[in-house]
Amino acid sequence: xxxxxxxxxxxxxxxxxxxxxxxxxxxTAKKLCMDVGRMDEKAFELNEETSGQAMLYTIAYLYENRxxxxxxxxxxxxxxxxxxxxxxxx
Length: 90
Hints:
The chain is mainly alpha-helical.
């Protein structure tokens, strides 16, 4: 859903040194957003716009807070972002 190019653009990174880290963050963000949003692959793709924004937020948060990430805070923020999908509103 989120490509390396999109993630690097969102993070404003123009070098390749962190590409492996960023790819890992993309994969982690997708899994975390799917778990928090209680979505399978199909639901995740149907809510592409919201899911994509949640992924970008997650990627940026984890990238910027590599050593000090507060996963409880991150999860609560994702719950708020993905609330409609979690509760079947959309």
